Amino acid sequence: MMVIFIRIILTWFSGIGGGGLLNVLSRITDPYLNWFRRFTFLRVGYLDLSPVVALGLLSLVNRIFGTLARFGTITIGIILMLVLQALWGAVSFFLGFLIIVLALCLVGYIARANMYSSFWRIVDTISQPVLYRINRILFRDRIVNFTTSLIISIAGLGIIYLAMRILVIHAVRLLAGLPV
Question: What's the CA gap between 173 and 180, in Å, rounded?
Answer without folding.
Answer: 15
